[in-house]
Design a protein that fits this description.
By secondary structure, the chain is of the alpha/beta class. 41% of the residues lie in helices and 13% in strands. It folds into two domains: 137 residues, Rossmann fold (3-Layer(aba) Sandwich); 63 residues, DNA polymerase, domain 1, CATH 1.10.150. Strands 5-4-1-6-7-8 form a six-stranded parallel β-sheet, with helices on both faces. Strands 2-3 form a two-stranded antiparallel sheet.
Length: 217
């Protein structure tokens, strides 16, 4: 890809892209499992389940034979995560620097995490001022990889798809961008295996968010 692609808005995923939320999500999942008398999962296992919202996360953690406990599991997860979502969550290296570099650029967040948790995390990490639009998994009828969240950002900002870029660490981010006609950027340091991200076919693949500064203007 040639350097200097002009975009008017950069849309970011949250978990695995801006914020390393693995430890706190894992702790909340394992709290729910403990309350339901299930054995704990490793962080690696939990990371495989992240990305499609809290109910799907818990359904994967519980397994297909225990979905009768899903509602209780979601309740326990939310109960714990509400009080502990910033215990160990931190920005990835280069995130603050990159957001500041693009301070004159319009920016948005599209995540499948509930909006309430999303807002609290970006406020706690002191990056909320950078984002014009913030959408959680409960902000639209459809979630990533469906293009509806991207369409909502574009509609709210009046930006054409060809003038937008989506940055994320999961195939869902890349698929949403493709369906919406948006330039897609994958980051390899996040929660999902690099092979999965590569298979999704992003337009650009980066191992450090700071490198985004070389490609977008």
């Amino acid at each position: 890809m040639r350097a200097g692609r002009h975009v008017e808005i950069v849309i970011f995923d949250l978990d695995g892209t801006l914020a390393d939320t693995r430890a706190d999500i894992t702790a909340a999942v394992n709290y729910a499992l403990q309350r339901l008398e299930f054995p704990p999962l490793s962080m690696e296992q939990v990371c495989q389940f992240v990305g499609d919202g809290v109910p799907t996360l818990l359904s994967r953690a519980l397994g297909p034979h225990h979905l009768d406990t899903l509602e209780a599991g979601v309740t326990f997860f939310r109960e714990y995560y509400t009080d502990h979502l910033l215990d160990q969550t931190r920005l990835y290296p280069g995130v603050r620097e990159t957001l500041e570099h693009f301070r004159e650029k319009r920016k948005a967040i599209v995540t499948n995490k509930p909006l309430e948790f999303t807002i609290r995390i970006i406020e706690g990490l002191e990056i909320e001022r950078h984002f014009e639009v913030v959408l959680g998994g409960d902000s639209t009828v459809e979630r990533k990889p469906h293009p509806e969240p991207a369409w909502k950002v574009l509609s709210a900002t009046g930006v054409e798809p060809r003038q937008a870029a989506m940055v994320g660490d999961s195939p869902a981010d890349i698929e949403m961008a493709k369906q919406a006609g948006i330039f897609s950027v994958g980051v390899t340091y996040g929660l999902r295996p690099v092979a999965d991200l590569q298979a999704a076919g992003p337009d650009l693949l980066l191992d450090d968010l700071r490198k985004l500064q070389q490609y977008l203007v």
